[in-house]
Design goal:
It contains 5 helices and no strands. The chain is mostly helical and 145 residues long. It has one domain. The structure holds zinc ion (2 copies). This is Beta-carotene 3-hydroxylase.
Length: 145
């Protein structure tokens, strides 16, 4: 039981860490041509940038499938990545960008900080002067009123 929780948390944490790194150095780097579709008003529901979600989703599915037989660490890390992906989708795509109008923005203090930080990330449409690349872990200043 403890084993499952630990590796699920590790999968989740790796996503926030590597997500921050990939967003800052790769998406706002060599793969900007793909990611910029998320920084511009989009004409259709899907953005080229959604390819990144497909990539992370495939990694999660791959881990779950390879670890399924023995329910080993790969399975639980895949579960952690999947939970991250679902929460990312609800917070980033539904609540912040309102791609689906499922519910109104909650007034929860932690979530408001996350929203502010991500809005700050979108304050620019350029490759080089963006700030705040993480989603769940953001500087303390965003939680002050
Ligand atoms: Zn960005
Ligand atoms: Zn965004």
């Amino acid at each position: 039981m403890m084993y499952a929780v630990v590796f699920t948390l590790i999968g989740f944490a790796i996503m926030e860490l590597s997500g921050w790194f990939i967003h800052k150095y790769i998406m706002h780097g060599p793969l900007w041509s793909i990611h910029k579709t998320h920084h511009q008003p989009s004409k259709s529901f899907f953005e080229l940038n959604d390819l990144f979600s497909l990539l992370f989703g495939s990694i999660a599915i791959g881990l779950i499938l390879t670890g399924a037989e023995n329910l080993d660490y790969r399975f639980w890390m895949g579960v952690g990545i999947s939970i991250y992906g679902m929460l990312y989708f609800i917070i980033h795509d539904v609540l912040v960008h309102r791609r689906l109008k499922w519910f109104n923005r909650p007034q929860n203090k932690y979530l408001l900080g996350i929203f502010k930080a991500h809005q700050d990330h979108h304050a620019t449409n350029k490759k080089n002067d963006a700030v705040s690349f993480g989603l769940f872990v953001v500087p303390k200043k965003y939680f002050k009123r």
